[in-house]
UniProtKB/TrEMBL annotation:
It comes from Streptomyces venezuelae (strain ATCC 10712 / CBS 650.69 / DSM 40230 / JCM 4526 / NBRC 13096 / PD 04745). CDD domains: M1_APN_like. Binds 1 zinc ion per subunit. Residues 1-27 form the signal peptide. The keyword Transcription does not apply. Its cofactor is Zn(2+). Residues 288-458 form the Peptidase M1 membrane alanine aminopeptidase domain. Pfam families: Peptidase_M1. Keywords: Metal-binding, Signal, Zinc. This is Metallopeptidase. Zn(2+) binds at residues 326, 330, 349. InterPro entries: M1_LTA4H, Peptidase_M1_dom, Peptidase_M4/M1_CTD_sf. One of its GO terms (molecular function) is zinc ion binding. The active site is at residues 327, 401.
Length: 462
């Protein structure tokens, strides 16, 4: 989400946005069997999606097929779909249904929706053995909510982040069916492949995750086909965007899209920062693997901020720019190196903020000491989103963004700058398109030094 430095948006403004978000109780997951200790499953997902838009992109409907492999030694008897687009509205009401609806399921038997209508369990017709593949198909109906949001409307523009149903993850802890708590992210998905065909009015410009080709459709319509490999999610937007494409010296194609009211100087600032940071992070952490990246800009996202998706970022852009560098850093931290964002929000937000500060060369020599006391006795970097949702929301920004980034700078001073850089490249390479945990990172750091880091972890509450 939004960066806390590198542009003028104040920390207090972001904290206020998070504090004013509606309270959401932590719901219970649906019952059902968990898998035996094993690798995360179902893995190697492949999504094939075909949707048709109405006249202004407010409504999309069609069919989606998801194929997957069982990576667990225990037979897989069901899979769970996450309908994250329902996170804010839940199950809706008779006259106002959930924004994302699924029907006509084939390849399995659906159970009732759970976790505030964000989780749909589908029982498979027969247990899926280890290493075998299966698929499920279903109709998808998406009504874009009437609010400025990562899944919402902005005047004539539509943003469809978290709109597509995605496979949930199961591992030795069982099914990961955590709720959307109303702020931050709760997402946990495995990298997969997407082929998304969007049939839309010709007047709509449609940026999307992946590499997109376009052809003429029915009279007055365009068919956009986007293909993405090794991504955890798929997002798109639609509207009368102005666009421009540049290529970085490192060969990454940047597609900029902006609304009619986005300030031109903000567009130029964002493009310059994007060109520099994509290549910089590629040198630091590993070359950006997706070929192209879409920057979707608007000056009307102030009640929301900015948001990262694989291959596409939404940016609240003012004359002085946006949090574009922080959001691009997320392409590596949660995108390339995945994490359970509900269980370990610091593994993406703290790392993205650390990378943002590295890029801008911000002074951080005393940042840990400058933070003073922890906000509470229970505050710690490894806390989950459940902790922050349960009466600790005011700690989220201060701990996850600020203290987390400072802890990484402090670790760099402990290891040495060269050793830290080498360690991070190795960490990224080791978990490339996988899922990392706090324990994985601690192991990577300890492997980079002969010094016992136990006291460091205790001091920094990791």
């Amino acid at each position: 989400m939004t960066s806390l430095s590198g542009w003028r948006a104040p920390l207090l403004a972001l904290a206020a946005l998070l504090l004013l978000a509606p309270q959401t109780a932590v719901a219970q997951a649906p019952d059902g069997p968990s898998v035996a200790p094993s690798a995360a499953t179902p893995d190697r997902p492949s999504y094939d999606v075909r949707l048709r838009a109405d006249g202004d992109g407010s409504h999309w409907s069609g069919r989606q097929t998801v194929s997957f492999r069982n990576a667990a030694r225990a037979p897989l008897t069901s899979v769970d779909l996450r309908l994250w687009g329902n996170g804010t509205d839940g199950c809706g009401a008779p006259d106002s249904p959930s924004p994302v609806r699924v029907g006509r399921v084939s390849g399995g038997t659906p159970r009732p929706l759970a976790v505030d209508c964000t989780a749909l369990r589908i029982e498979l017709p027969e247990p899926l053995p280890y290493g075998a593949r299966a698929s499920v198909s279903f109709d998808v109906d998406i009504a874009v909510p009437d609010r400025v949001h990562r899944f919402g409307k902005d005047g004539a523009y539509r943003y469809l982040g978290n709109a597509l149903p995605l496979l949930s993850v199961r591992d030795e802890q069982g099914p990961h069916l955590d709720p959307d708590v109303g702020f931050g992210e709760s997402f946990h998905t495995l990298a997969g492949d997407f082929r998304v065909v969007l049939d839309h009015p010709r007047a709509l410009v449609v940026p999307a995750t992946g590499t997109t080709t376009r052809r003429a459709g029915a009279p007055g319509r365009t068919v956009s086909t986007s293909v993405a490999h090794g991504v955890r999610d798929f997002a798109w937007a639609a509207g009368p965007f102005t666009s421009r494409t540049v290529t970085t010296p490192g060969g990454v194609r940047l597609n900029a899209y902006w609304t009619a009211t986005t300030p031109p100087e903000g567009v130029e600032t964002d493009l310059k920062a994007a060109v520099g940071s994509v290549d910089d992070f590629g040198r630091r952490f590993g070359h950006y693997p997706y070929g192209e990246l879409d920057l979707v800009m608007s000056d009307n996202l102030d009640d929301f901020g900015s948001m990262e998706f694989p291959g596409l970022v939404l940016l609240w852009t003012e004359p002085e720019g946006s949090a574009v560098v922080h959001e691009i850093a997320h392409q590596w931290f949660y995108g390339i190196v995945g994490n359970d964002q509900f269980a370990s929000p610091w593994l993406d937000e703290s790392f993205a903020q650390y990378a943002n500060q590295l890029y801008y060369g911000e002074p951080t020599a005393t940042c840990w000491e400058d933070q003073g006391e922890w906000p509470s006795d229970t505050a710690a970097l490894h806390r989950t989103m459940a902790y922050y949702a349960d009466g600790h929301r005011s700690e989220y920004v201060r701990v996850v963004y600020i203290r987390g980034a400072c802890a990484l700078h402090d670790l760099e001073r402990t290891l040495g700058s060269r050793e830290m850089a080498t360690m991070l490249r190795t960490y990224v390479r080791t978990h490339w398109l996988g899922v990392a945990t706090t324990a994985d990172f601690k192991h990577a750091a300890q492997s980079a030094t002969d010094r016992d880091l136990g006291p460091f972890w205790r001091e920094h509450r990791i």
